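Tutorial handout. Part one gives the primary structure; part two gives the three-dimensional structure as tokens.
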Amino acid sequence: MDSTLPAVAEELLKEIKKAFQETSHGTDMFFFRLKFIFGPSAVPALDLVDQRSVTRVMSPSGRTAYQVLGSSGKLYTCYSSCHFCTCPAFGFTVLQKSESLLCKHILAVYLSQAMGACQELTVSEEQLTSILLAEEEDEG
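Part two.
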């Protein structure tokens, strides 16, 4: 993770990744720690990972973004490098009220990376640009 999450969150995600690399599964202790650190986002994020709702979208130049199919059926674009999601909950709960570190979509991105459960999709530069611009048009 090349990000600015609190050190305890970074360490937990590293431990989860290591456990999944070694044994292909986590433990109940990870579940309790996730809930403690990430609060109410933890369980819905794990549900999104279980449903394989996270897709890493890559272009030939190496640009990446993540798309998460939310529980509402809407597709959200997430940027793990800067902890940003296009969902309304991120804007309200994370940015406006500072009640949470992350929304469930970004947490699902981090967990799917750690657990090796991320779908992969390679697209052209133009397609990736369209994905990114579509989000701006939705907001405007």
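Part three, for discussion. The two ends are 31 Å apart (CA to CA). The chain has a mean pLDDT of 87.
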